[in-house]
From TrEMBL:
Keywords: Acyltransferase, Transferase. Residues 1-35 are annotated as: Disordered. Pfam families: Acetyltransf_1. The keyword Acyltransferase applies. One of its GO terms (molecular function) is acyltransferase activity, transferring groups other than amino-acyl groups. Residues 7-24 have a biased composition (Low complexity). Residues 43-205 form the N-acetyltransferase domain. PANTHER family: AMINOALKYLPHOSPHONATE N-ACETYLTRANSFERASE-RELATED, AMINOALKYLPHOSPHONATE N-ACETYLTRANSFERASE-RELATED-RELATED. The keyword Transferase applies. This is GNAT family N-acetyltransferase.
Amino acid sequence: MSIATHGATRGATRGATRGSGSAAPVRDGTLPGTWRVAPVGDPSVVELLEDLVREYTARYGNSFDGQPHSARVEINRYPPERFAAPLGAFVVYEEDGVPLTGGAIMPGPAGYQAAATPTQPPRRTAEVKRVWTRSDQRGRGLAAATMAQLEARAVELGYTHLYLTTGPAQPEAVALYLRTGYTPDFDPTHYPATNGAHPFTKELS
């Protein structure tokens, strides 16, 4: 279901549906709020994704990866089941019931998977998607905390590597991924626009 459908009823359904199908909230010991795994239709996820649509629109207009489509089309391009166990997960961080940051993992591209060999275990790669922190909450380390939560969830689901991409108009995201141990699969010394999508990878321990 698209975020447009849920967004129209967010206020009316928040109390009734928040947490439906979600894992029990947990504290990580470093932040005052709670983390939980939620379905894509959860009101907190919808709220974060609507904010992400607005940001993508401001930064990219109606073009993604060189294709003419809107931010909302981009956000809704994958079916919700790809972000649910056993394939993936969507994690949300909340304080007093308000979503402040979150992100998701889903199965990664075929080219980043590998079967086991006599000398190497299988490579199972998840792709990180929809990492987002509310603009008024940036500078608190929430994005890095979200990445740590996603990495832990990926390990629980049996993934060995992570893959992600970000765009040339998101230098803050590039800095985040470099800072949290991701290896760029592009030349970061080039002017950002010449690289197009910026892919990164990370091996999970």
